[in-house]
Amino acid sequence: MKKVFWFPILAFLVMTTVAGAAVIYRVVTEEAAVRKDRRFFAPVVIRVPYGEQIQGQERRGDWLKVVYKSKQGWVHINAVKEQKVRLSALAGGQAAETTRDEVALAGKGFTPEVEKAFRDKNPKMNFKLVDRVESYRVNEDELQSFIRSGKLIEPGAE
């Protein structure tokens, strides 16, 4: 009788310990750079595309230690959002869905309504130039070389 009583309690404790060990985050920016150290100038270990899930291991200040595709490193908290389990979706109920663009804009503080209002107030603004700037990519090796040769140091870095 005693074994039957303790088994459900033991099972519950094991499940909550395992569930609490890792937190799942979803990338809410166009791309999240997982870096070797907790610094913006640190080399990139892997880049994680928008919408992908990454497993959080620990948090130190504004940085999360994460694992993605067996690679480990640090990502800034602003690039991700904790993945919440939506019980209504699990129970077969209706869960609200959003588009990729809506989530990306919301992550930047924009909603479709805010962007429309901005465009309406600034009809002469050339948004193609903004798109062009956003599409510019820098080679990671060239960037690290630039940082080293310029002896750039992040504020607060050792």
What does this entry look like structurally?
With 158 residues, this protein is α+β, with helices and mostly antiparallel strands. It has a five-stranded antiparallel sheet. A two-stranded antiparallel sheet has the order 2-3. Mean pLDDT is 76; it is low at 14-20 and 87-91. Strand 2 and strand 3 form a beta hairpin. It has six helices and seven strands; from the N terminus they run H-E-E-E-E-E-E-E-H-H-H-H-H. The protein has helices at residues 2-21, 87-90, 100-107, 112-121, 127-135, 140-149, and strands spanning 23-27, 31-35, 44-49, 53-60, 63-68, 71-76, 80-82. The radius of gyration is 21 Å and the shape is globular.
Relevant terms:
158 residues, alpha+beta, five-stranded antiparallel beta sheet, two-stranded antiparallel ribbon, 6 helices, 39% helix, 25% strand, globular
Helix content: 25-40%
The main sheet comes to: 5 strands, antiparallel
Can you count the helices? 6
Order of helices and strands: HEEEEEEEHHHHH
Strand content: 15-25%
- Unreliable segments (pLDDT under 50, ≥5 consecutive)? 14-20, 87-91
Q: What is the total tally of β strands?
A: 7
User: Would you tell me the overall average pLDDT?
Assistant: 76
Radius of gyration: 21 Å
Instruction: Strand order, main sheet: write it out.
Output: 6-5-4-1-7
Structural class by SSE content: alpha+beta
Termini separation: 60 Å
Q: Rough shape?
A: globular
